[in-house]
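User: I'm curious whether this sequence folds into something compact or stays loose and floppy. Could you predict its structure so I can see for myself?
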Amino acid sequence: MSDVHVRAARTDEIDRIYAVHRDSVSTLCTSHYTDAQIASWLDGRGPEMYLPAIADRRLWVADDGDVVGLVEIAGHELTKLFIRGDRAAGGIGRKLLATALAAIRASGARVVYLEATTNAHAFYSHHGFVEIGRGEFSHGANGVALEIVKMELDLREPIG
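Assistant: Here's the prediction. I'll summarize afterward.
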């Protein structure tokens, strides 16, 4: 894990970033979501979806010689955090989260918002996020819904 560093994403690696996103969803979310939900989640997505965030410097990758994770923010919201399935639970998510939180804090935001998958709920809780509600997320042509957990982190509070 010490060989993993977090850096700004580059446009020439959008295919690798997308591959991490797909792999993470396809391997880490299968115990909480059905095959139909995962297929709907990934439907219509592609590597080009990362270009605006890269241009705005809101997307970072975890790199160990290859892209193994990513995190994206939009304002005070953490919009994506994905780790390649075979690299999960090794501290990469913690490093990516710290990078995103530092950027959000530097913007002057006092609260970070995110919509967690049910499988990621415990990770975010461990890092100080509190559940503020539940909801559904739907993407793709078939409109299959996925349960999500709405969470917030007060940046003014010390993380214990």
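Summary: The domain at 5-154 is CATH 3.40.630.30 (Aminopeptidase). The chain has five helices and seven strands.
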